[in-house]
Input
Amino acid sequence: MPSHQPQPASRKPRADAHRNRERILAVAREAFTRSGADVSLDDIAKQAEVGPGTLYRNFPNRDALIEAVYRSQLERLAAAEKEFAATMPPVEALRAWMKLFVDYIAAKQIIAPALYAMVASGNNVFESSLALIQGAIEPLVARAVASGDLRDDTDGMDLLRAVMGISNMPSSPDWTESARRLVDILILGSRPQA
Output
């Protein structure tokens, strides 16, 4: 007769395991930005001060790490909306978030070929991207409009399309600085006319 022993309850990862995972993601994001998506995973583990086994336990392959870096950037954008809204005046919160969006685009551009290869193999890595991004910018724009800092017809997606447009131009080493200046220009151009 088979024994019906209780299965262990699933538990949250230990704090040190969570820290290791976050450190790996931070190092990987920096390494991908600096050297591209083909950087050595062993080098990432070494820079994160974890063993290769720890890296592979968290991210069984390069695609898993690349996807996690991409998703962590999305989560960072979503969380920043609430943080900036709670700690900054409306138009400054929008400006700070849009500059963080520039960083997101920069990171995405570096790993884009690997992300698109995942999509081609059936992994819909971009599935929730637009909803998260819209869900972050729309309340920021609404606050800035309600405070009188921006015109009533200001559209968050229009602002993002303009920033994304500059990122699609032939890349130059300083495109991120140009995109950051564009954020300031867009916000200035969205101010109510006196």
Notes: The mean pLDDT is 85.
